[in-house]
């Protein structure tokens, strides 16, 4: 077993983001979805990996259409992709009309009020401003319901002024292929899309792409799969890992059997142990739910490829791991928190959550390294 050492400078851990893997994942999804166009969802700072580097890389690879959640994110994407089509999923924030119009960002209009407001903005400027229409097919969140969509389809003047270039909906259960809601949503989506002939249609998120051609329509909107996340509930991800998180050991201490580790004395050591301390905690997004306590193991990490358990509760800025069985581990030895031996999905499972929440919860204190930045 070769143990590597790691120097993270002023930070407690290093987050390495593999942009070549991001691009490979996009190309993989684009090939699965062809002839549909493959866009990229880069909301929430590109699921935590950094919206600037992610958009730049995907745009260079040929991605022409991006989706963000907030106008602010749209502005950040716009600075690195001046000619890309950028849709704002959460729609038209009342105070954001001018900013969207000026930056050429397209709101995904999700209610009759938003359609009216965007059409009015276009009229006021003397030219229609492009948008997308969101139709709700079963999520019951944002989007026009079918009645509202029908009413809009009957108003040619309003429709022309709101200038939609895409009609879209969002699947609630795409990560469960057998779920009956998928088929119901597809049926309703087809009915909605038929109201707007000539508009490209979009239904599939990452998991939706894997439901097959019926769901891929004219454009697909993968998010989590680009970043290496799973596309099927409870199954390992078929994508390349994009993100690696490692921390150097800060100190090792010998602790006798019968002693406890960390807050609440939640875990009692059952053998004389070597305990390694890492400068990573829940303030870094390594959630407390992955703590260990007597009778309930917590998350795991890997050292030199060997997987070892977390000991006791995860603190705000520190955590302890068991290196009793890794004799060569010492101060400075690299510990993999997310990577090849402990995957994103393993970490999410230990935290009782999903890949999305681990990615978007990753803290801001890590040293960041982008691999293969062009
Ligand atoms: C977040 C989001 C996506 C991307 O979903 P993933 O499951 O991450 O692929 C697509 N469409 C909409 C409307 C979204 O909100």
Write the layout of secondary structure elements.
Blueprint: E1 14-18, H1 19-33, E2 37-38, E3 40-41, H2 43-47, H3 51-61, E4 65-68, H4 71-80, E5 85-88, H5 97-103, E6 106-109, H6 112-125, E7 131-134, H7 146-153, H8 156-162, E8 164-168, H9 180-194, E9 201-202, H10 206-209, H11 213-216, E10 219-220, E11 243-255, E12 260-261, E13 267-268, E14 273-278, E15 300-303, E16 306-311, E17 319-322, E18 334-338, H12 344-351, H13 355-361, E19 367-371
Parallel strand pairs: 1-19, 2-10, 3-4, 4-5, 5-6, 6-7, 7-8, 8-9
Antiparallel strand pairs: 1-11, 11-14, 11-18, 12-13, 14-17, 15-16, 16-17
The structure holds pyridoxal-5'-phosphate (PLP).
Structural class assignment? alpha/beta
- The total count of strands amounts to 19
CATH superfamily of the largest domain: Alanine racemase
Strand content: 15-25%
Low-confidence stretches: none
Distance between the termini: 33 Å
Tell me what the CATH architecture of the largest domain is: Alpha-Beta Barrel
* Rg value: 24 Å
Principal-axes shape call: elongated
Give the distinct bound molecules: pyridoxal-5'-phosphate
What is the averaged pLDDT score? Answer: 97
CATH topology of the largest domain: TIM Barrel
The percent of residues in helical segments reads 25-40%
CATH class descriptor name of the largest domain: Alpha Beta
Tally of distinct domains: 2
The biggest beta sheet is recorded as: 8 strands, mixed
Number of helices: 13
């Amino acid at each position: 077993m070769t143990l590597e050492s790691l120097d993270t400078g002023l930070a407690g851990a290093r987050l390495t983001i593999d942009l070549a893997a991001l691009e490979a994942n996009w190309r993989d999804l684009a090939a699965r979805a062809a002839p549909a166009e493959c866009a990229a969802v880069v909301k929430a700072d590109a699921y935590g990996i950094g919206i600037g580097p992610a958009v730049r890389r995907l745009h260079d690879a040929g991605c022409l259409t991006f989706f963000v959640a907030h106008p602010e994110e749209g502005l950040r994407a716009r600075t690195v992709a001046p000619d890309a089509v950028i849709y704002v999923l959460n729609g038209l924030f009342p105070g954001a009309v001018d900013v969207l119009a000026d930056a050429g960002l397209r709101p995904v209009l999700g209610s009759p009020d938003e359609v009216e407001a965007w059409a009015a903005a276009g009229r006021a400027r003397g030219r229609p401003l492009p948008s997308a229409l969101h139709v709700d097919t079963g999520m019951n969140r944002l989007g026009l319901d079918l009645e509202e969509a029908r009413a809009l389809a009957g108003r040619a003047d309003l429709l022309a002024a709101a200038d939609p270039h895409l009609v879209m909906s969002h699947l609630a259960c795409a990560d469960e292929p057998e779920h009956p809601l998928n088929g119901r949503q597809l049926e309703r989506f087809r009915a909605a899309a038929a109201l707007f002939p000539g508009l490209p249609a979009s239904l599939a998120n990452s998991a939706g792409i894997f439901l097959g051609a019926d769901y891929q329509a004219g454009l697909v909107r993968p998010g989590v799969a680009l970043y290496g996340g799973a596309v099927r509930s409870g199954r390992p991800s078929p994508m390349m890992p994009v993100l690696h998180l490692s921390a150097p050991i800060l100190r090792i201490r010998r602790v006798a059997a019968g002693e406890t580790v960390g807050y609440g004395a939640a875990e009692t050591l059952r053998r004389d142990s070597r305990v390694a301390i890492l400068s990573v905690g829940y303030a870094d997004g390594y959630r407390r739910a992955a703590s260990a306590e007597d009778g309930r193991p917590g998350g795991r990490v890997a050292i030199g490829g060997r997987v070892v358990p977390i000991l006791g509760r995860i603190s705000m800025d520190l955590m302890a791991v068991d290196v009793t069985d890794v004799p060569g581990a010492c101060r400075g030895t690299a510990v993999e928190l997310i990577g090849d031996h402990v995957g994103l999905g393993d970490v999410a499972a230990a935290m009782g959550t999903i890949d999305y929440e681990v990615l978007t919860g990753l803290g801001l204190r890590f040293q960041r390294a982008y691999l293969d930045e062009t």
